[in-house]
Amino acid sequence: MSDALLRLRDVTAFYGPAQALFGVDLEVRAGQVVALMGRNGMGKTTTIRAICRLLPHRSGEIAFMGRDISRLPPHRAARLGLGLCPEGRRCFGNLTVEENLLATARPGPWTIERIAALFPRLAERRAQLARTLSGGEQQMLAVGRALATNPRLLILDEATEGLAPAVRREIWSALAALKAEGQAILIVDKTLREMLRLADACVILEKGVTVWSGPPSALTPELRDRHLGV
Ligand code: ATP
Q1: Which residues, judged by CB distance below 6 Å to any ligand atom, belong to the binding site of ligand 1?
Q2: Is residue 224's pLDDT more than 80?
Q3: Which residue, 18, 37, 177, 183, is most buried by CB atoms nearer than 10 A?
């Protein structure tokens, strides 16, 4: 038995009849930041959906804290400590910043006050409706909302997409602060440089299969060229 927080072995997934994952292996240990990488359409978001139980399970192992979660409904998986910040933000537009955070809040170290301290812009806009926030502020709120669940594993799918460089920097520095606190994070992001600076381990997907995993320092130019197209 490994001491993995999250462990996927040979996971497959389908959208209707179309197979999207053919054998994903992935492990996140406590306190680790793991970067899930691969070119467009290789299965990163689908892997995250499978972990969070947003896709029906077909085969393979999905274990969280040593427990098989492959047949749990999404809300039960969330309750065990999977905190998802989904692609495309999806905040509740007609609720205020504070109400959005309270809507998902569960007891734990990440109180609304601490989230506000991590993202001062949110603190300033506590009473503002989420739909009137800028894109960057909505993204901060989406991260904050996932944190408010006090997840054992924070999962971020393209949390910096479409944001101005200065706002991205704010998010990366917040993530660095989270890592320093020992928060485990599984991250998908297109800005490789910042992601690799944060990551302890990387997993590369190619057509729905894990083709490589290892530390960022072992990610050679050849691997990047072959699997990431950079
Ligand atoms: P990107 O970086 O472009 O977001 P990704 O690595 O996250 O890509 P996925 O979104 O997981 O890739 O897609 C994996 C495969 O599953 C692709 O071939 C995609 O076309 C397919 N797919 C994704 N969502 C659906 C869906 N709702 N219905 C059918 N096929 C889908």
Answers
A1: 15, 18, 20, 38, 40-46
A2: yes
A3: 37
